[in-house]
Amino acid sequence: MIVAEALAEARKAISASEARLLLQETLGITAATLAAHPQRELGLGDAACFLALVSRRAAGEPIAYVVGRREFYGRQFAVSPAVLIPRPETELLVDIGQAKLTTCEWPRILDLGTGSGCLAVTLALATGGEVVAADLSAEALAVARDNAERLNAEVRFVVSDWYSAIDGEFDLIVANPPYVANGDPHLSEGDLRFEPAAALASGADGLTALRAIVGDARRFLRPGGWLLVEHGYDQGPAVAELLAAAGLRDIEQHRDLAGIVRVSGGIQG
Ligand code: GLN
């Protein structure tokens, strides 16, 4: 089988761009090299491997899990079904978090529910601060640790049920926790079907994790420290109330690139 035939075969089940991507992955070559050699012969092993990837994608598995990585903030993060696939809107937490730390020389940062580690690693590299990243899932922490090592980020990883194993105070706490309501129909659509339920769904109103994270934040924030959390498209008002009830001040809400209020936060004052 030659490249052009392999791509034509894959096109019966998946999009042309994903077919090219999976063939690049299989052959370990760039998009340009693939495009330049449509007549290249595939070995039997490569052909079988490529068709196996195509059938996984055709069965609905997220492309990020099939190739084993996803870009976040300009860097490639390894992902597995043990972690949520990083989303572009979560980059907003990095931008806002960094902006809050401009006066801290060596900030202490906590990332709760780190998953792939995309927030912890990106913030560590952006600020040079001391970063602690927590997750309840040891499997997720293994993925995050691998990302931190490969990207040369210094992050301390802790198995923790939100704050249960966390000590000390921080200049910034970030979290992209599960915030989808249990039973929300989106959970049975698209990529979400394959992602860890514990990283997506959180109680009847989707706010259980956010209540825990916001509720205890003041105990773990230095004076002037910020809590910033990502939440669902319709949870802005509820999260603002949680922040106020927890005694945080200067409550802010930020819109993502789609114009949706996606990140809320407040200061320990
Ligand atoms: N933003 C994700 C989605 O709905 C949910 C991620 C999360 O719960 N943190 O696709």
Please describe the topology of this protein.
Blueprint: H1 3-11, H2 16-27, H3 31-36, H4 44-58, H5 63-67, E1 69-72, E2 75-78, H6 91-100, E3 108-112, H7 118-127, E4 130-135, H8 138-150, E5 155-159, E6 170-175, H9 197-200, H10 208-215, E7 221-230, H11 236-245, E8 249-255, E9 261-267
Parallel strand pairs: 3-4, 3-6, 4-5, 6-7
Antiparallel strand pairs: 1-2, 7-9, 8-9
Helix pairs in contact: 1-2, 2-4, 6-7, 10-11
This protein binds glutamine.
Fold and architecture overview:
This protein has 269 residues and is α/β, with parallel strands linked by helices. The protein has 2 domains: 3-59, no CATH class; 82-267, Vaccinia Virus protein VP39 (Rossmann fold, 3-Layer(aba) Sandwich), CATH 3.40.50. The protein is built from 11 helices and 9 strands. A 7-stranded mixed β-sheet has the order 5-4-3-6-7-9-8, sandwiched between helices. It has a two-stranded antiparallel sheet with strand order 1-2. The longest helix is centred in the N-terminal third of the chain and has 15 residues, at 44-58. It is elongated, with a radius of gyration of 21 Å. The relative contact order is 0.11. The structure holds glutamine. Glutamine binds next to loops.
Can you describe this structure in just a few lines?
The chain folds into two domains: 3-59, no CATH class; 82-267, 3-Layer(aba) Sandwich (Rossmann fold), CATH 3.40.50.150. 38% of the residues lie in helices and 20% in strands. The protein has helices at residues 3-11, 16-27, 31-36, 44-58, 63-67, 91-100, 118-127, 138-150, 197-200, 208-215, 236-245, and strands at residues 69-72, 75-78, 108-112, 130-135, 155-159, 170-175, 221-230, 249-255, 261-267.
